[in-house]
Write a structure and sequence with these properties.
Elements (H helix, E strand, L loop, with lengths): L5 H4 L12 H16 L16 H18 L19 E5 L6 H13 L10 E4 L5 E6 L4 H10 L2 E7 L6 H13 L3 E7 L7 H18 L6 E3 L3 E2 L2 E2 L1 H11 L8 H5 L2 E3 L2 E4 L3 H6 L5 E10 L8 E4 L3 E11 L22 E2 L8 E3 L4 E3 L14 H5 L5 H18 L3 H8 L5 H7 L1 E2 L8 E2 L7 H11 L5 H25 L2 H16 L2 H8 L20 H4 L8 H15 L3 H6 L12 H10 L18 H11 L6 H4 L24 H4 L6 H4 L23 E3 L4 E3 L5 E2 L13 H29 L7 H5 L1 H20 L4 H8 L6 E9 L1 H5 L8 E4 L7 E10 L13 E5 L2 E5 L2 E5 L5 E4 L8 E8 L6 E5 L11 E11 L4 E14 L3 E5 L5 H6 L4 E4 L4 E7 L8 E5 L9 E8 L7 E2 L18 H8 L28 H6 L17 H4 L6 H74 L1
Helix pairs in contact: 4-8, 5-6, 16-20, 16-22, 27-29
């Protein structure tokens, strides 16, 4: 092909012809002209946007409105925290049968969140997922009791399924438990996808699993696919997809958890005194439980249910610091770094330090430090007299002493301990008061009262805190003088101090605290308070951090005491008036300077010391110059002294009232007047004519005063001058928040008021948002009311709200709980309302589960899970008739609801019920027997049972008869007078009076007609059914083997099978063939006179049997010749026909026999092949069932 030339490059294509004439050309020219002149008008064609099909458009609009109406709902009461970081971490339960990868999933999530490798995830594991979010991961064991407990507390469920094996029965059981106890969010996690060989089978399995999962949960439920494991964890990018959704999921409020407080226990500790356990190993224990408060507020004095143990009362509830707090907001970083990620898993051996109210436990592992004198053995062996060597050795000692102050100094000093704590406690002593005799631990001269007092002192009650504060303050005030005295003292005192400090530090916390809290504020140096032990060089190198430890503790206590101020304590004082006797820092310093030479300083009365007001009176009189009396000027009423007793008051009263009687602008009453009144005092002063409010011109946007002057808007006040950028931002943020809250309140009120109005559709849709904002405003008002300083008062009035990490102490716990505790089992403490602590009868709507194989029999024991409890009870089934009668049922209906009444703890109506027939043993089928919901609580039962009283007639009159055998006495007959009776033939009657003839209980009865002697008379009655008061809680946590060790009542059928006892047969209950004799009735006889008067249609028309034959039968028939020929021909034709029929019948019989033989051979072959297929099918099913059984036994 030739290359293109220059002519082809400059080729110009022919353009389209423009319309120059006609209608289109004229319109185009006119449009161009109008556009050029600027006279172009916008055209609007109304038909261009009209509806093409009116009916279809109406249907679409109606459908959209119906869909919008279905989405509207009544908002559930959500009592959870408004802010995510203020609430507790949601519980994410990992559920599934054994071998599906639950532990691997938890390890992978912890690795993603915290970069920590968990070897054996056990118990609740709390991790921070972001700056404001945290979750608690909990693995659910494969037992019915554990699955019931987890279903009651889980906020999100990760349902693990082995995709290669498919759904198992445990997964469906857990879904049914959640449906009963409140359905939380559920996500599917499908594992073992790497075992599929082809992608076709993988896609097919995913499709089947998705359809089945969506059928059980809802269409569109989230599903995650994990293909394989690397180093014992799932692939990182697959786990990250799950973490992204975990950080965004919103949890729905559930009714039961929204009305009850509960704790998912992170850890617990047995705090029973060791002496009690030594005396009796089976004594009841005191156990402290730790966990986040969830649900509603947990109040002191509330009864709780420890699931799997029983009901208890909380002895003590206290708030603790959050062990896994959210990220600090003050930091500038917007993301959660790996180094800032927090992990709290106390049962999984994570972390080296664990905090308790009574002690701090440090796991030092294998850290050992080598002493410096052991580093250079030659230098210690040689005796050098050189001064330089002495200087170098002294420098090394100083280095070693300074090294003790480092964090490793504590561990170094702990290595020098040669004796155990129990051995040193034998020689330790304790002094309760100054000047009192020191109590030796090894002596036996202490009586029983002192021993009990010492045991009580080991755990200080709340009122001793104020005593400790008094001693701390005095010790802090005397610290300066004592330090100087100790510096001037000789080597003997220092040696004794070091000796005693070592012994005191190694003692328990209680003994150390009591020893250091003596009145004189110093250690006891007498022979009673120390024991003889040769001092070595190691003791001289004691840790310097131990010096002045009491002064440092006093300083820290006073610093914390100053930082907190409670409004209620400031106004009304502390409980018991103890706070009024405490001495502040300034008063302590002044009193110590003036009272150094006081002879009564060593007395025990100085343990509680009043403030000296006389010294402050002179200073206050000089500073304040009020117009009142001198006594008023001499008294300084501060925030802690406003209700104190004044011993030297001039008025002689217990309280000086002069300060409250002063008048003036600066008096005490005027200073607190605004604290008790809301509003502006200025509005009520002056003339009535001047009392006008401001008004605003809404159109102009200006505000005017009472005299017409224009008033600038005070809300838009400018920021004060001299503010920094940070303060300016805070000022603007507060101003914006206040304006937004004011607008939201006005907007919400207007929307709520317009909900009922016609035409305001937008207000109806925004009603839910208005309720949410109202809830947030209510929470803000509560927070503003209590404030930050009133946390103690808030906990006392509100209780411990959700999100607070609490310590709950429970006494009287059986020792089996501590001895047989399994950390893998979930431990839940649920709060009980006063109603739920009472016992009574519960009537519920009950239905047997369609997957359960057998129907349930009345009065057979079943295990019921209702509320926090799970217990065994005996139900009675009934059905409600049209007249409101609850009729007794012996068995549950097959596919219908019925009523069940049983005895147990009361719960609110509409609470879900789940029944399991057996908790123990390997049950091959579906273990959940029935489900239901509570309908009514009552103290008595309304279930009645049908009873038929049977009697026989002894004398029969016209319409009257004497009946016997129905009642046993005349009293019973009198109770049933007027009752309706009936015969088997259907004749109705009535009981009249008892008679004296015959056996007792015989009575006279009347009937509609005369009865027969063979008739049986019966009376239908209804008898109330007694409900057995049987309640057996499932105490699975008190057995080492869990629910297997719990002893439950067995059914009669189960006892028959276990004991191999034959079933008792009642001969009267056996069905026998009914033999009835044929009754012969007499012939109806109608007199001839009566028959003659009857019409012909009613007369008797039966002909009598003739003894002689009639004329027709006796006459002879003679045929003619022609008839004989015809008769003979017909007879010959019939004979030929019968012979052909007989031959055809024989041939057919032979043919059928041959065909039957061939069919038998074919059937034999088919039966053989059918048996082979059945054998192969049953063999495959047997293998699958055996694999499931092995998996169940292993799990």
């Amino acid at each position: 092909m030739a290359p293109p030339t220059a002519d082809t490059d400059n080729q110009v294509n022919r353009g389209h012809k423009t319309t120059k004439s006609g209608r289109g050309g004229r319109e185009a020219k006119q449009l161009k002209k109008d556009k050029k002149d600027g006279n172009l008008k916008d055209k609007h064609n109304p038909r261009a946007f009209s509806v093409a099909n009116i009916v279809r458009t109406q249907r679409n609009i109606q459908r959209n409105l119906d869909r919008a109406q279905k989405k509207e709902y009544v908002p559930a009461s959500d009592r959870r925290a408004a802010r995510v970081e203020a609430g507790p971490p949601p519980v994410v339960a990992v559920v599934g049968p054994p071998g599906v990868g639950k532990s691997t999933l938890i390890r992978s999530l912890v690795k993603i969140y915290t970069n920590h490798n968990l070897t054996n995830p056990t118990g609740p594991i709390t991790v921070c997922t972001s700056k404001t979010r945290r979750v608690t991961l909990l693995e659910c064991p494969n037992t019915p009791t554990a699955m019931l407990d987890v279903a009651k507390v889980a906020d999100l469920v990760l349902l693990c399924v082995d995709a290669k094996f498919g759904f198992e029965m445990e997964s469906f059981e857990f879904l049914n438990m959640m449906q009963t106890h409140g359905f939380p969010k559920v996500m599917g996690v499908f594992t073992h996808l790497d075992q599929f060989r082809t992608m076709k089978n993988l896609r097919k399995t995913k499709k089947l699993l998705k359809h089945r999962f969506w059928t059980e949960i809802y269409d569109g439920a989230k599903m995650f696919y994990f293909s394989g494991c690397v180093n014992g964890k799932y692939l990182k990018h697959e786990v990250k997809q799950l973490t992204l959704l975990l950080g965004r999921v919103k949890y729905r409020p559930l009714v039961w958890r929204n009305t009850h407080p509960y704790l998912v226990v992170d850890r617990h500790e047995d705090i029973t005194h060791p002496s009690k356990i030594e005396e009796d190993e089976k004594c009841e224990r005191s156990v402290a439980f730790y966990g986040y408060v969830r649900g509603t507020n947990l109040k002191e004095g509330m009864k709780v249910h420890l699931i799997g143990v029983g009901d208890y009362g909380m002895v003590e509830v206290s708030a603790l610091p959050d062990p896994c707090p959210v990220f600090d907001k003050e930091k500038e970083s917007q993301t959660l770094n790996k180094k800032d990620a927090k992990l709290y898993a106390p049962l999984s051996n994570v972390g080296a330090v664990s905090f308790d109210k009574d002690a701090v436990y440090i796991d030092i592992g294998r850290a050992n430090y080598t002493k410096k004198e052991n580093l250079d053995l030659k230098g210690n062996a040689d005796d050098d007299d050189n001064e330089e060597d002495d200087k170098s050795s002294s420098e090394e000692e100083e280095e070693y002493d300074s090294d003790v102050d480092a964090p490793a100094g504590l561990l170094k000093s702990m290595q020098d301990i040669k004796e155990g704590v129990d051995q040193k406690l034998k020689y330790s002593s304790m002094r309760l008061f100054k000047g009192s005799k020191a109590v030796q631990a090894g002596t036996n001269d202490v009586d029983e009262a002192d021993e009990t007092l010492a045991v009580q002192k080991q755990r200080r009650p709340a009122q001793d805190v104020y005593e400790l504060a008094d001693s701390f303050r005095r010790r802090y005030n005397e610290g300066g003088d004592k330090d100087q005295d100790e510096d001037e003292s000789g080597s003997e005192s220092s040696g004794s101090d070091s000796e005693e400090s070592d012994s005191g530090d190694d003692d328990s916390d209680e003994s150390e605290g009591e020893d250091e809290m003596s009145d004189d504020g110093s250690h006891a140096h007498s022979g009673e308070g120390s024991y003889d032990e040769p001092t070595t060089g190691e003791e001289e190198n004691k840790a310097t951090w131990k010096t002045n430890i009491a002064q440092e503790a006093a300083k820290n206590y006073l610093r914390r005491d100053k930082s907190f101020a409670n409004l209620q304590q400031l106004v009304y004082g502390t409980p018991g008036g103890v706070a009024s006797t405490l001495v502040s820092d300034e008063d302590g310093n002044k009193s110590e300077k003036d009272d150094d030479g006081d002879e009564d300083s060593d007395s025990d009365d100085e343990f509680f010391k009043l403030r000296d007001q006389s010294k402050k009176a002179s200073a206050s009189s000089k500073a304040v110059g009020n117009e009142g009396t001198g006594t008023v000027d001499a008294i300084e009423l501060g925030e802690n002294d406003s209700s104190r007793k004044i011993p030297n008051a001039e008025s002689g009263m217990a309280f000086d009232m002069n300060a409250w009687l002063d008048e003036g602008e600066d008096c005490l009453v005027e200073s607190i007047r605004n604290k008790f009144v809301t509003g502006d005092w200025g509005n009520g002063e002056g003339n009535e004519e001047e009392v006008f409010d401001k008004f605003e011109d809404l159109e102009a946007g200006e505000r005017y005063g009472p005299n017409g002057e224009v008033i600038e808007d005070s809300d838009d006040e400018a920021a004060p001058e001299g503010m920094t950028d940070v303060e300016l931002r805070e000022f603007n943020a507060k101003k914006k928040a206040s304006q937004k809250s004011a607008f939201d309140e006005d907007y919400d009120e207007s929307k709520k008021g317009n909900v009922g109005k016609e035409g305001d559709e937008q207000a109806e849709g925004e009603y839910v948002e208005a309720l949410k904002r109202e809830k947030e405003a209510r929470l803000r008002r509560n927070q503003d009311e209590f404030g930050v300083d009133g946390e103690t008062s808030r906990l006392r009035y509100e209780g411990f709200r959700q999100g607070i990490y609490c310590r709950v102490r429970i006494d009287g716990v059986p020792p089996e709980f501590v001895n047989s505790f399994d950390p893998t089992m979930p431990l839940v403490i649920g709060g009980l309302t006063p109603q739920e602590t009472e016992m009574g009868l519960i009537r519920c709507r009950f239905k047997k589960h369609r997957w359960h194989k057998k129907i349930l029999k009345c009065n057979d024991p079943i295990v019921v899970s209702i509320g926090w409890r799970r217990f065994q009870t005996i139900p009675v089934f009934s059905t409600e008739d049209e007249n409101g009668r609850f009729r007794y049922l012996k068995y549950t209906p097959e596919h219908m609801h019925c009523q069940a009444t049983f005895y147990g703890p009361q719960v609110p109506p509409n609470t879900g019920i789940l029944a399991i027939q057996r908790l123990t043993g390997n049950i091959p089928g579906f273990r959940i027997s029935a489900t239901g919901v509570v309908l009514e609580l009552d103290a008595s039962s309304k279930v009645v049972k049908k009873l038929k009283l049977v009697g026989t007639p002894i004398k029969i009159f016209k319409n009257t008869a004497f009946i016997s055998g129905m009642f046993n006495s005349d009293l019973e007959v009198s109770r049933f007078e007027g009752a309706s009776i009936r015969t088997v033939s259907g004749l109705r009657g009535q009981v009249k009076k008892s008679i004296r003839d015959g056996q007792p209980g015989t009575f006279r009865a009347t009937f509609e007609d005369k009865i027969l002697r063979s008739d049986i008379i019966f009376c239908r009655t209804w008898v109330p059914v007694e409900i057995k008061n049987y309640y057996n809680p499932v105490t699975s946590l008190l057995c080492s083997t869990g629910a297997e060790g719990w002893r439950a009542m067995k059914t009669k059928a189960q006892l028959h099978v276990e004991t191999q006892t034959p079933i008792e047969v009642n001969p009267d209950s056996i069905y026998k063939p009914i033999e009835r004799k044929e009754r012969t009735f007499n012939k109806l006889y109608v007199p001839k006179s009566v028959e003659a008067a009857l019409p012909f249609s009613s007369k008797h028309k039966d002909e009598k049997k003739r003894k002689k034959k009639s004329y027709v039968s006796k006459r002879a028939v003679v045929m003619e010749a022609d008839e004989k020929k015809k008769y003979t021909f017909v007879q010959a034709v019939n004979t030929i026909k019968n012979e052909k029929k007989a031959k055809r019948k024989e041939k057919n019989a032979e043919r059928r026999l041959v065909k039957a033989k061939e069919a038998a051979k074919t059937d034999e072959k088919l039966e053989a092949s059918r048996k082979a297929r059945k054998r192969q099918h049953y063999r495959a099913e047997g293998k699958v069932e055996a694999a499931r059984e092995r998996k169940r036994v292993r799990g």
